[in-house]
Write a structure and sequence with these properties.
Elements lengths: L12 H21 L2 H5 L4 H37 L3 H29 L3 H4 L4 H33 L4 H29 L1
Helix pairs in contact: 1-7, 3-4, 3-6, 4-6, 6-7
Length: 191
């Protein structure tokens, strides 16, 4: 896959920005359209509330992981611009290791404290159990999520926004399939 040469001074700035931005814009649209809260809606108000309650936790963790990745992305992009590819590779490796470590730390914290989140967020007693079950599923995702955010940022730092776009499409497909499997598993118990 051809990467965009961000250092090409002959390239139009508007065209460069558009080429870099479109995969990210489409990714955000997909995230808005395909989310767990919308997919559990048919299960009823309690299930929807339980999932919705934990969205803020997911957004908080993702914000932290994105902030971490941005720090590395800036350093990587600066080294690529300076043609210091060896240092760039070193920072990429460090960024991947830090993302893995951050994911593990978040996983461990959530493993021990996740069941308290519904209480901390003031959840109604009727949704606490379902909310605690959902946070268990979210906890499993934090390690690969950290790695995905970091690796997508690394690709973007090198001018390649298509690879993260394709990874996010695959991620959305996996999310939909797994959510539907859980959804239909849950639906069996309703009958």
């Amino acid at each position: 896959m051809k990467t965009l040469d961000l250092l090409d001074e002959k390239a139009s700035i508007n065209k460069t920005i558009l080429l870099l931005a479109w995969p990210t814009i489409v990714k955000q649209i997909l995230l808005m359209c395909v989310n767990d809260t919308a997919m559990v809606g048919p299960l009823g108000a309690i299930a929807t509330s339980a999932v919705s309650l934990n969205v803020s936790v997911l957004l908080l963790v993702n914000g932290f992981l994105m902030a971490l990745a941005i720090g590395y992305i800036v350093i990587i992009a600066n080294n690529i611009e300076s043609e210091n590819y060896e240092k760039s590779r070193m920072v990429v490796n460090q960024g991947i290791m830090i993302a893995l470590l951050a994911g593990v730390v978040i996983f461990v914290i959530m493993l021990f404290l996740g069941s308290n989140i519904p209480y901390i967020l003031g959840a109604d007693v009727s949704i606490v159990k379902d909310s605690q079950e959902y946070i268990k599923f979210l906890t499993i995702v934090f390690i690969p999520q950290g790695l995905m955010i970091m690796s997508n940022g690394i690709f973007r730092a090198s001018g390649d926004t298509k690879t993260p776009f394709l990874v996010n499409i695959l991620n959305n497909i996996i999310n939909v399939v797994l959510t539907l499997c859980l959804f239909f598993h849950q639906m069996k118990f309703l009958y």
